[in-house]
Amino acid sequence: MLKFCTLFSGSSGNCAFIGTDRAKLLVDAGVTAKSIEHELGLIGEDPGEVDAILITHEHIDHIRGAGVLARRYGIKIIANDRTWRAMDQEIGKTEPEQRIVIDASSGSFYVGGLEVSSFTIPHDAADPVGYTVSDRRHRVTVATDTGFLSPSLFEHFKGSDAVLIEANHDLDMLENGPYPRYLIARIRGNRGHLSNVSCGELASKLALGGTRAIILGHLSKENNLPEVAYETVRRTMEESGVVIVDHTDVIPPDFFAPGSVTSEQAGGQYPAEAGLVVAPRYGHSKVILI
Ligand SMILES: [Zn+2]
Ligand SMILES: [Zn+2]
């Protein structure tokens, strides 16, 4: 069984957990090590059992606590070469065996039985990526900081049971908010961040293709609100024919019955159902078990 949730999400720091009984991974470690240790405890996980931290890109909201965690628990840090070069100083000293350099073009690799693959995302960093993690039965894909909805981005998310995608800003709040023009242009640009509307389009397509759990993350503090993001995405999904199912704390495993027919496979006869949650800025999201 795969366990998946965010621990922190937003411009003040990002960290997600994906694990099984045998392997435990963090995607990014963008808040202090102490905060991550605390939050892992709240979802019943031991930081000493984390095998690796997968780094998406070198921005501080994704790497802040990575070096300290790695040194404290002997955790491996995994990133591609250009990201390593951009973040090396901030990570600080680590043992050579903790420093794993992946090649974006080499496909996938394994961490304790979990298959991991990275893919390029459009964002203003050295070589930013998203990650797909699979236990061979189920698949989780994580990518925030995504400038725009490119066809290749959709291809990488497609077929995932659960996803973390970005709902960064409400377009009206961004346009009428406190940000100067150049910053608004950066955020709206192709290497900036994804709006609630674009996020809704992506979420709809994914749910119609069989994705059953969608976490909205990396919300802007100034240009978005959790209820605005949720409502915009929900409306778009429902207009596309997706039924939003309301779950309590844990999405039950049988919700992801293997071989279940997706709405697309059924020729759209059956409504696609998906759970939709907003990742809190501080503290963990609902824990998804698949
Ligand atoms: Zn970020
Ligand atoms: Zn970033």
Summed up, what is this model?
With about 290 residues, the chain is an alpha/beta fold. Helices cover about 30% and strands about 25% of the residues.
Report on the structure:
With 290 residues, the protein is of the alpha/beta class. The protein has a single domain (3-289), classed as 4-Layer Sandwich (Metallo-beta-lactamase, Chain A), CATH 3.60.15.10. It has nine helices and 16 strands. The strands form two sheets. The protein has an eight-stranded mixed beta sheet. Helix 8 crosses helix 9 (226-239). The longest helix has 14 residues, at 226-239. The structure holds zinc ion (ZN) (2 copies).
Give the arrangement of secondary structure elements.
Blueprint: E1 3-8, E2 15-19, E3 24-27, H1 33-42, E4 52-54, H2 60-63, H3 66-73, E5 76-80, H4 81-91, E6 99-102, E7 108-111, E8 114-120, E9 129-134, E10 139-143, H5 151-157, E11 162-166, H6 171-176, H7 181-188, H8 196-208, E12 213-217, H9 226-239, E13 242-245, E14 250-251, E15 272-278, E16 287-289
Helix pairs in contact: 8-9
One zinc ion (ZN) is lined by residues 11, 14, 59, 61-62, 145, 218.
Specify the biggest β-sheet: 8 strands, mixed
First and last CA, distance = 6 Å
Strand order of the largest sheet: 6-5-4-3-2-1-16-14
Bound molecules: zinc ion
Shape: globular
Supply database-style keywords.
alpha/beta, 290 residues, eight-stranded mixed beta sheet, binds zinc ion, Metallo-beta-lactamase, Chain A, 26% strand
